[in-house]
Amino acid sequence: MSKELMETTMTLITYGGNAKSSAMEAIYAAKESDFELAEKKLEEASESLKKAHNSQTALLTQEASGDSVELNLLMVHAQDHLMNAITFKDLATELIDVYKQLKLFS
Predict the structure, then answer these.
(1) Average pLDDT for residues 32-40, to the nearest whole number?
(2) Cα dihedral angle (28, 34, 39, 40), rounded to 10 degrees?
(3) Which residues are catalytic?
């Protein structure tokens, strides 16, 4: 694996992990009715996802231009991190809405 591909792969893993952590922190904040913090954490998750997505897009562009990207277990792991982070952020958004509605009725 080239140094450049390793850096891109680690970027996906790092920002995917950061996004997932921020999404979980958003859920924890909403559970405590701290909706301001929950929204801030969702924004952090979105920023991390944007950075990860930019790295992924660079790889997709490289592949589309005919320059094959090496596929290995680490790259699969990186893509898995990214997809899980996207799912967690989407779920966090929905859970925060549920916590807000519960707060209105309590």
Answers:
(1) 98
(2) -90
(3) 77
Alpha carbons 79 and 72: distance in angstroms, whole number: 11
For the chain, the distance separating the N- and C-terminal CA atoms, rounded to the nearest angstrom, is 55
Question: In this structure, what are the phi and psi dihedrals at residue 21, rounded to the nearest 5 degrees?
Answer: -60, -45
Whether the pLDDT of residue 84 is over 90: the answer is yes
Distance CA 95, CA 101 (A): 10
Q: Which of 53, 51, 30 has the alpha carbon at shortest distance from 40?
A: 30
**Separation in Å, CA 74 to CA 11, 42, 46:** 12, 27, 23
**Mean pLDDT score of the chain:** 95
pLDDT band for 32, please (50, 70, 90 cuts). Answer: very high
Give the distance between the most distant pair of CA atoms in the chain.
Answer: 58
